[in-house]
Amino acid sequence: MSSHLVKNISEEDIQYEEEILRNAYSVKHWLRYIDHKSSASPFDLNIIFERAIKELPRSYKIWYRYLRTRLQQVRSKSIEDPENDYVIQCFEKSMVYMNKMPRIWLDFCSFMMDLGDITKTRLLFNKALRALPVTQHKRIWFLYIKFINKYNIPETGIRVYRRYLKLVPDDAEDFVEYLRSVKKLNNAAVELSKIVDNEKFVSKNGKSNHLLWNELCDLISKNPLEIKSVNVDAIIRSGLRRYTDQLGHLWNSLADYYVRSGLFERARDIYEEAIQTVTTVRDFTQIFDAYAQFEELSLNKQMEEFVNENNPSVDYDIDIELRLVRFENLMERRLLLLNSVLLRQNPHNVQEWHKRVELFQSQPLEIIKTYTEAVQTVQPELAVGKLHTLWVGFAKFYEVNGQLEDARVVFEKATQIDFLKVDELASVWCEWAEMEIRNNNIKNALHLMQKATVLPKRSVSYHDDKETVQSRLYKNLKLWSMYADLEESFGSFITCKAVYDRIIDLKICTPQIIINYALFLEEHNYFEDAFCTYEKGIALFKWPNVFEIWNSYITKFLDRYKGKKLERARDLFEQCLENCPASFAKFFYLLYAKLEEQHGLARHAMSVYERATTKVKQEEMFDMYLIYIKTAAEIYGLPRTRCIYEKAIENLPDDRSREMCVRFAEMETKLGEVDRARAIYAHCSQMCDPRITSEFWQTWKEFEIKHGNEDTMREMLRIKRSVQATYNTQVNMMAQMATNLMVNDVDNNEDAMKNLDKQQQQSIMSTNGANIFFVRGETQGGLKGKADQVVNPDEIDIDVDDDDDDEEEEDDGEVHCKIEKQIVPDQVFGSLSK
C-alpha cells in the first residue's frame, strides 16, 4: 500500500502531506486533505480516510465523513456486490470507537435494512439499543418500528412492539393497528381492551375513550371466531353501564357477536333483553330495526335452503313456519314495545298509560292489568298529565262491561287519592255522579254530590297546598255547579235554592252562576228574589266582571215592569253608571235614554244624552253626538240642535270636528240660514290645512258657487290663502328653530334660547303683514295700452273695492256667530285661480 501511495501522490498533494507530517493529529488538516482529494478515485480517497482514522481513531467527524463516503460509493450497486461487505466491516470497525454515537448506528441500521438481511438487521438494532443510553433509544426505535412494519414478521414484530411500549406507552394505538394489519385480531382486542380500561390513557390521534370503546366493540363483534382471549359479553356489558348514550349501538354489537358466532337463539335473547331495558326511542329504533333485519334474513336464508334442497323434509316446513310466526309477532309487538320504552323513560306519564290501554282493545284481562299497574305506579306529585283520567277510565271500563259495583269501588278508591289539584278530585266526583245518572240512579248521584260538598270540621283555605285536597273540596266551583245543575234538573225548588245560596255564601260564585240563579228564580216566578240575587252579584263583583250581571238585571227589570217603576229604574241606571268604565258606558246610556224617551221626560232623555257624550270612549263620542242630535231634532226640531253642534265641535278631535262642522253647515243651509252656514265654514277653515283637507275646501267652494256671489267667493279664497300661509309659516318657523338649535348647541344654552325667542317674535311680526308683499292682480281687459302689462290667462275679472268692510252678526237666541273681517289693501288679492 505504501508503494501505491507513493505512486499516486501528485505535486498538489505534497503540501498537504507535509502539513500532515507536521500535524498528524490535527483533524482540520486531515479534512482539508480529504476535501482536496474528493475528486480522486474511490480507492485513493478511502486510503486517505484509513490513514486519518489510524491517526485519529476517535474523531467523529472523520468517521462520519468516511462512512457517508462509503455509503455513497455503494448506493448504485446491487445488494450482492462484495463492496457492501467492506462497508459493513467499516461500520463494525467504527463501532469500536463510535458506539455511543446514535447517528452512526442509524446509518448502519438503515444500510442493513436496505440490504434486506432481516436477522442481521434485527440483531444490529438490538446491539444499538444495548450500546446507546436510554435517552437516545427513541431515535433508534423510530427506525426499528419502521423496519418491523416493512417486513411481514408478525412474531418478531409483536415482541419488538411490546419492548417499545415499555418506553413509549402512548403509542399503544400503533401497536393495535399493526396487529390488525398482520391479522392478529385476538392480540389486537386484548391490547385495545387494556387501552379502554386505562383511564389515564390519552390518544395521540385525538380519539376519545368512547370512540375507542366503539372500535373495540366493532372488532370483537365482527370477528368472534378469531378472538378467544377476551370475555366479549362482559366487555360490552361494562360499556352498557358506562356509556348510557350509546346503548343501542352496544346492544347491537353484542347481538351481532352471537349472530356471527352462530348462536342465533342467544342473539334473540340479547335483542329481547335490549328491547326490554332501553329507555329512549332512538336506542329502541336502532335495536328493533336490527332485530327485524336479523329475523328477516334468517327467514330468507331458511327459505333459500328449502328451495335449493332436493328432497326437503317436514322439518324445513315447520322451521320456516316458526320463523315466519316469530317475524310477524315481532312486527305486531312494535307499538307495544315502543310504549313500554316510553313508560320506562317516565313511568308517571298518564297519556302513555292511556295509549297502552288502547293497544289491548280486545284483551280485557290485559286492560285491567294495565290500569291496575298504572294507578299503582303513577304518583300524584310526579304525574305528567291528569291522573284522575286513569281512575275514570278504569271505572268506565267496568261500567261498559256492566260491572257497576266494581266501577263504584274504583271511584271510591279514587276519591281517597291525594291528588295534586282539587279540580282533579272534583272531576272524579263529577264523573262518578254522571255514571250514576247514565244508569238512572238519580238519588245516588244527588247523594254523591251532597257527600262531596259536606263542610269540613274546620275551615281551611282553598289555596292552602299544605291541606289535603279532600278537605278543600267543599269550595270547588266545578263540583257545586254540577250539584246545582242536578238539583235544578231533578231536585225541588227548595233544595236547588239552598244549593245556590250556599254557593253565594261560600263566595265562590261567578257572574254566570248569579245569572243562572236569577233565571232559575224567574222560571218559578220569584222575580223579586231574582232581583235580589242580581243585587248580591253586583255587591260581590266589580267592573268589568259585573257587566253581564248589570246587563241582565236592567234588561230583565225593564222587561218586567215596562216603565211602571220609573224611579227605581232610574236609581238602577244611576247606580250602574256611577263607576261604569267608558268602554261599557255607551250601552247603558242608550238604554237609559230610551227608557226616558218611552216612559219619562224628554228633557231627562236629553240630559242623559248630554252626559253620555262626555262619559263614553273618545272613539264613540262622534257617534254619540250624532244620536244626540238626531233625537233632539225629532223631539224639538232642527233649530234646537245648534247648541249640540257647538258643543260637539268644541269637544271632538279636529278630524271629527271638521266633519261635524260640515254637517252643521248643511243643516243651516237646509234651514235657509246661508250666512250662518258661511260663518261655520269660516270657523272650520282655521283647522283645515288646504294641502291635506282639500275635500272641505271643495265643499265650501261648491257651497259658495250655489249660494254665494263674487264677494263671498273672494272672501273664501282670501281665507284659504291666509290659512295656508299660516300653516306654511308655522312649519318654516319650527324647522328654522330646530336648525338654529342644532347649530348653536355647542354655545351657551341661555343665549341660544334668547336667540330662538327673538327669531320667533320676528317671524310672528312678519306673519302679521310687516314683511309680506303681494303682487297686484289686474284683469286682462282693464289695463290695455300699458307697457308693463302682464297677461295671466288664469286670472278672473273681479272688481275689488278698497273699502270692503262687512260685518255680520245674527242672533236668534240659540247660536251666536260673529265674523270680523280685516281691512286688506288691494295688493293682498293677487292673481286668483279659476
Write the layout of secondary structure elements.
Elements: H1 2-7, H2 11-22, H3 27-36, H4 42-55, H5 60-74, H6 83-94, H7 102-115, H8 118-131, H9 137-150, H10 154-167, H11 172-181, H12 185-197, H13 209-222, H14 232-242, H15 247-260, H16 264-275, H17 281-308, H18 314-332, H19 334-345, H20 350-359, H21 364-377, H22 388-400, H23 404-414, H24 422-438, H25 442-452, H26 477-490, H27 493-505, H28 511-523, H29 527-540, H30 547-561, H31 566-578, H32 582-599, H33 602-615, H34 618-636, H35 642-651, H36 654-670, H37 674-685, H38 694-707, H39 710-743, H40 749-770, E1 807-811, E2 816-820
Antiparallel strand pairs: 1-2
